[in-house]
Amino acid sequence: MYHYSIQKKQQNAASLKFRPYHPHNNKRGNLQSLIPLTIKRIISRRSPISQCSCVSFAVLIFFLAYNAPSLILYRIVHSDETMNECEWQEYVQKQDRVSSDPSHDSIFNCHSSHGKCKYFRPSHFFSSCGRGKGMKNYLNEMEDMHQDASLWAGMPPIIMPYLRLDTDMQMRSGKYFDRINLSLIHVHKCAGTSLVVAFRDIVMNNKKQIELKHDFKGMHTLYSPTRYQSWNSKGWNATSDFLEGAVRYQKAHQWNDSNHMIVAMIRDPVERFISAVGHISSEKFRSGQELRNQCLKDSASETLQCFVRLLRTNGFWIDLHFTPMVFELSFTTMGKDVPVAIFPFDQVPNVLSSIGGNPKKKKKDGRRPGYRSAVLMNVTMNDFRADVLRELCMIYRMDVWFLQDLEHSTHCDGVI
Predict the structure, then answer these.
(1) Which long-range contacts does 213-217 make (Cβ < 8 Å, 24+ apart)?
(2) pLDDT tens, residue by residue, 142-160
(3) Nearest to 156 by CA among 192, 184, 202, 198
(4) I need a surface site. Which of 20, 131, 383, 393 has the fewest CB within 10 A?
């Protein structure tokens, strides 16, 4: 395989260079690099196949069949030594849609018959080749606010919990885990709290086994509104190095102390907005008091309209829970070219079950009495006026495009 290394953090396309890369540094990777050279030597000598020994010819045919994808890629790359950014991203995305172990029955085995996820690369989405290329001004604005510690002021920190699951670790049911390393992007209002708690419960239930792994720290903090982390800080660099180990789903023996699979849940943008409004309208959360005072009205329709207009006027940085999902994914992955396994919201119970959690337990249930304001207890899509819904979909059009790229339908599909 090949990948490009980024010389500048801004990921300027002009700085893209390609170099050979073998993720697991295994023998197959080394052999793949030798095959084209062997073929080249045979062809350059114009040796008839009859002059090759039967054994050598049989070995050559075997490796041609086994390494065909790599040979094709070798030819593509070395035809002019480089590929432009768009060609490379197209190739990577095609590889992402092929399961590395189709036979394994795990929901984390994306793009297999058993998998319930699809890979997404935020850096590709916002590149000059991606659908979100016109949204970079928002990313720049987000980074400017990050630099002066005004981003999501008064909000919870942005964390990335992770787990190393081994076959000697048990779920509460008594069943043993499969070998896998998982890290979680907490996309807000997408069952993130329930998943973070499930991760924590695994640690508590398997404390003895986890304590034996001295490299285990439990989570990385990407951003805390009360404590700015510079690009050169120890914590930021540790998280950056950790992200470099992000891989797709792989076989049990390939997991090690440095690699992991990033997972995230996503949700229909309109349903997520309703959930965010319900969260902010709750008196349990002090951070939303100012917004509640401005927009909590006598009816659900008026309340939704006020919050939509508030976002249009003040932007979605006014509260972390209003931040578009694709921006949260980009921020948490630091703009790196890494795969994120995206699960649709209806797979939350299955993901919880797979990591030993309670699939029926919700840490923040908007239907629970007292959680939301009474005005919003029974809010539905029908409470949106047509013009307000259209305006909301335009505000979150980047999330609509993001979900469409993953072939997920949204309530905005027929609106914008």
Answers:
(1) 213/164, 213/257, 215/257, 216/164
(2) 989 888 878 888 888 888 9
(3) 192
(4) 20
Which residues are bridge partners to 262 per DSSP?
Answer: 183, 340
pTM recorded for the entire structure: 0.79
Q: Is 337 helix (H, G, I), strand (E, B) or coil?
A: coil
Identity at 237, one-letter amino acid code:
N
Q: Which of 285, 272, 300 is nearest to 374 (CA)?
A: 300
Identify the pLDDT of residue 237: 84
| The two three-digit tokens of residue 94, written as one number | 């095609």
Task: Report the SS3 class of residue 384.
Answer: coil
Strand partners, 219: 161
Distance, in Å, from the CA atom of 42 to the CA atom of 60, rounded to the nearest integer, reads 11
Supply the DSSP string of 233-271, one letter for each residue: SHHHHHHHHHHTTB-----GGG--SS-BEEEEEE--HHH
pLDDT (tens digit per residue) in 173-221: 788 888 999 999 999 999 999 999 888 888 777 765 565 454 445 788 8
Coil, strand or helix at 156: coil
**Below-70 pLDDT ranges, the chain:** 1-81, 207-217, 226-232, 285-287, 366-367, 369-370
Tokens 């997991």 locate to: 255
- Which H or E run includes 391? helix 386-395
Residue pair 330/117 in contact (Cβ under 8 Å)? The answer is no
Residues 319-351 as b or e (16 or more Cβ within 10 Å = b): bbbbbbbbbbbbbbbbbbbbbbbbbbbebbbeb
Residue with tokens 């972390």: 320
Report whether 318 contacts 310 (CB < 8 A).
yes
CA angle, 318 then 274 then 411, to 5°: 115
Supply angle C-alpha 55, 57, 62, rounded to 5. 95
Instruction: Yes or no: say if 159 and 219 are a contact pair by the CB < 8 Å rule.
Output: yes
Provide the 8-state DSSP code for 179: S
The per-residue pLDDT for 54 is: 54
Rounded Cα–Cα distance for residues 159 and 400 (Å): 25
Question: Which letter does DSSP use for residue 114 in this model?
Answer: S
Quickly count: other Cβ atoms within 10 Å of residue 304's Cβ: 24
Q: How far apart are CA 282 and CA 220, in angstroms?
A: 29
**Residue 94: what residue type?**
K
Q: Which residues contact 128 (CB under 8 A, 6 or more apart)?
A: 13, 85, 86
